[in-house]
Design brief:
This protein is an alpha+beta fold. 33% of the residues lie in helices and 34% in strands.
Length: 173
């Protein structure tokens, strides 16, 4: 069963990423503060190529990333979702998120991550997922821990050191 194209949380509405999200994603992923948590800010051209790649992956795999906006105002908050990643020699499904710097500290990362986990363990029936971040990204590590992930080990991802966390489906253990 594929992931839903639209998901909602108490405060947010997530839509499957598409070209219509170019402006919001360029602002998010081009922000140097956000880029510092992801290994570097992206140019508008990189964002456009990323949207194309994410759309293709969604079509092939049945899941992917959503752009999240506040339900009340429609203002973009961030992006997050699920993606295949070859991490430390294993094929994994990663839960990822990025939140606009102006909205840090409001629980949006946790809300986006929880929505992605609901799809991963519900609609997709996955047994486990991973999340990883740069070692110094303490806020993302806290989000992982709030969501129930357990620290596993240090890894190298995209030629940068990262920390890997894992979460098993509540029904898989």
């Amino acid at each position: 069963m594929p992931a839903p194209a639209v998901i909602e949380t108490p405060r947010l509405r997530g839509e499957r990423i598409g070209p219509e999200h170019q402006t919001a994603l360029a602002a998010l992923l081009g922000d140097p503060r956000v880029g510092a948590t992801l290994g570097g800010a992206e140019t508008p051209g990189q964002v456009a190529a990323g949207i194309t790649a994410l759309r293709r992956k969604w079509d092939e795999q049945g899941f992917g990333y959503w752009v999240f906006s506040e339900r009340e105002t429609g203002e973009p908050v961030g992006r997050g979702g699920l993606g295949h990643a070859h991490v430390a020699g294993r094929d994994e499904v990663e839960v990822g998120w990025a939140v606009a710097a102006e909205r840090w500290g409001r629980g949006y990362g946790t809300e986006i991550g929880a929505a992605a986990l609901e799809v991963a363990f519900g609609a997709l029936g996955l047994a486990e997922v991973v999340a990883f971040t740069l070692p110094g990204n303490v806020p993302s590590r806290r989000v992982m821990e709030k969501l129930g992930f357990s620290y596993e080990r240090e890894i190298v991802w995209a030629d940068l050191p990262h920390v890997l966390y894992r979460l098993h489906s509540p029904g898989s253990r």
